[in-house]
């Protein structure tokens, strides 16, 4: 003879019962833009090379510094022109 299973009650707490009819799409969007928050998605092979966002920022700052120094070496000076 089969026994009846007890009826499962909703175990979700009241504070998790969200009413999505009052939700506002993009509520924090303007604030995030104002604060300058960016989200960048890295390809999996690139993400493996970095421990976290601090490591990515450090690598990019290093690249920017090297780029600026290299640009100064290749830019013509404002001195006399030959010819």
Estimated radius of gyration: 28 Å
Q: Tell me the number of helical segments per DSSP (H or I, 4 or more residues long).
A: 3
Unreliable stretches (pLDDT < 50, length at least 5) are: none
- Give a count of the beta strands, DSSP E runs of length 2 or more: 0
Broad shape: elongated
* Secondary-structure-derived class: mainly alpha
The arrangement of helices and strands along the chain is HHH
**Strand percentage, roughly?**
under 5%
Query: How would you sum up the major sheet?
Result: none
Mean pLDDT: 82
* Distance between the first and last residues' Cα: 107 Å
Task: Outline the fold blueprint.
Elements: H1 29-35, H2 44-47, H3 53-74
Walk me through the structure.
There is one protein chain. The chain has 83 residues and is mainly α. The protein has a domain of 29 residues. The radius of gyration is 28 Å and the shape is elongated. The protein starts with 28 loop residues before the first helix and ends in a 9-residue tail after the last helix. The mean pLDDT is 82.
